[in-house]
Design brief:
Length: 531
């Protein structure tokens, strides 16, 4: 198109402002359909036409289509027919003063739209590359026919519209690619989480394999789960694995430690609270609502007060809750996974845990084994933790001597996997050589002695009276109190640690997890002399 003035005389400021407003509006619109609708409305006013419409060219079908010429209907015609077809085929502006006398005029469109076309101005839409993509069409000039000035103005509008259509097409492509990448990313993340969920549960022993198998079996359901086992046996890790492999994986996993909050705050933390219930109290959403659609993990539920147990039971039964201070109930879609290190059947007998809540939670029951029960998994665990923390502190990989590994497998591990992990972390930092010898281990582990915590099954067994008269206390003979027994064990562990570290107080304190000053206080308390 030749560059020329839009108007034959000095263009009025009002007309220039209209043109600038039109350009700004169409370039602000990113979606194609609203863009074409906007052009149809605004362009007809600029050229004082009764109608304006945009036809887009489909080269494969050799078809022109207008998305907004009729409400809720798309007009389609052969690209070789009509005045619009002639413009797109020749790539030239066509200005028809009297459509009824032009052989190219396609009357079927008027019949379909019930519109009487008198004059027509059609401007091709041409990209900067020269590719024709459609036409911009104006019908019936108000008060006359379309002039050469209208043709020039129409050409400017068509150029701006072509750029806007290009931008809208690019925007749509980017949106589709973003949606595709987002969906692909979600699928990959879900796949990775599903694969890694159980892979993080390390071990090849029968109890661990049974847990992994059970997680796989319940992956498609949302039944509540109860996990029991000693502290440090990975109950939280198993809860997260269950969530990650479930249909709820893309929803929240919310945790609450039932012993971390006082009784008066536990209910508001679980169920939420309304503003103004008490002076200065702000509204807060509870853990149940935060976990909507996902999983709520209640850790140490065996320590939950009875009053809170009753309210949780009601929520689990009705799957609805009421915030504190609000009468309206809220529907819930939450899977509950509860965990405890206590023997709940004993707690039921003692009256500290509700039997109905126990059976409500125990739809699926998993028992995490103590580390001393699966010594065959210790080599795998130690190797994993040792490599991990060596890498974390920036040192080369270390390995355990055969005797060191035997000691670790024979040690009862009262702190279970958590204690083993901490020991490997300490060795990664403290030991400079590549091969970790037995003497590098913590003193208490070297001695192989600890206050072993009984398993849940052992806790549930009643104490058997001794039949050996040598073990029966003599009447009147004073027995040691619990505190005295614990003090004796603690003193013994400190003495053994001192010997293992050649009475070096700094290394001994570090091995015991104490500060140097803390160790000195204990030496004074137990009257231990360090030569």
């Amino acid at each position: 198109m030749k560059s020329s003035l839009l108007f034959e005389k000095e263009p009025p400021v009002k007309e220039i402002r209209k043109l600038l407003d039109f350009t700004r509006l169409i370039h602000a619109e990113r979606d194609l359909f609203p863009l074409l609708e906007l052009v149809s409305q605004k362009a007809k006013h600029l050229l004082e036409a009764e109608r304006a419409s945009v036809f887009l060219l489909d080269k494969e079908k050799c078809e022109l289509s207008s998305l907004v010429a009729l409400p809720n209907e798309v007009i389609k015609l052969d690209a070789r027919l009509g005045i619009a077809g002639a413009a797109v085929m020749t790539g030239k502006i066509i200005n028809v003063k009297d459509a009824s006398k032009d052989s190219r005029f396609y009357k079927d469109i008027d019949k379909k739209t019930k519109f009487c076309t008198r004059s027509v101005l059609v401007v091709p839409l041409r990209k900067l590359t020269g590719e024709l993509i459609g036409t911009l069409q104006f019908l019936n000039k108000k008060g006359g026919v379309f002039t050469e000035a209208d043709e020039r103005l129409g050409a400017v509008l068509a150029d701006q519209l072509t750029l806007a259509i290009d931008t809208a097409g690019l925007w749509e492509t980017l949106k589709q690619e973003h949606h595709h990448l987002k969906k692909e990313n979600q699928e990959l993340r879900s796949e990775i989480e599903e694969r890694s969920a159980t892979q993080r549960i390390m071990g090849m022993s029968a109890p661990i394999q049974n847990i992994i198998r059970t997680i796989g079996q319940i992956s498609d359901c949302s039944f509540d789960v109860l996990i029991t086992g000693e502290n440090g046996t990975g109950k939280e890790l198993i809860a997260k694995a269950i969530h990650a492999k479930s249909p709820r994986a893309d929803k929240p996993f919310v945790e609450l430690n039932c012993t971390a909050l006082p009784e008066n705050l536990l209910e508001s933390e679980l169920f939420g609270i309304e503003k103004g219930v008490a002076t200065g109290v702000a509204a807060r959403i509870g853990k149940f609502e935060l976990a909507q659609g996902g999983t709520l993990f209640l850790d140490e539920i065996g320590d939950m007060p009875l009053a809170a147990q009753a309210k949780i039971l009601r929520v689990l039964q009705e799957r609805r809750l009421e915030r504190i201070g609000k009468r309206e109930s809220i529907g819930l879609d939450v899977r509950v996974i509860a965990a405890t290190n206590k023997n709940l059947e004993d707690a039921i007998t003692k009256g500290t845990f509700r039997q109905d809540l126990y059976y409500r939670l125990k739809v699926i029951h998993l028992v995490t084994p103590a580390l001393r029960e699966i010594p065959e998994d210790i080599p795998l665990l130690t190797n994993y933790f040792l490599l991990r923390y060596c890498k974390e502190v920036g040192v080369g990989p270390k390995r355990l001597a055969a005797r060191t590994l035997r000691i670790l497998q024979s040690y009862p591990w009262p702190g279970n996997i958590r204690q083993l992990e901490n020991e490997m972390k300490r060795l990664a930092v403290m030991v400079r050589k590549d091969l970790i010898a037995a003497e590098d281990l913590d003193a208490s582990i070297q001695c192989g002695k600890s206050q072993q915590t009984p398993s849940l099954e052992q806790q549930s067994q009643p104490l058997k009276p001794s039949l050996d008269p040598r073990e029966t206390p003599v009447l009147g003979q004073q027995q040691k109190s619990l505190k005295e027994s614990l003090d004796q064990v603690e003193k013994q562990i400190i003495e053994q640690a001192l010997q293992a570290h050649h009475f070096h107080q700094g290394r001994t304190a570090e091995a015991l997890g104490l500060s140097r000053q803390g160790l000195i206080k204990k030496l004074k308390r137990f009257s231990i002399t360090v030569s």
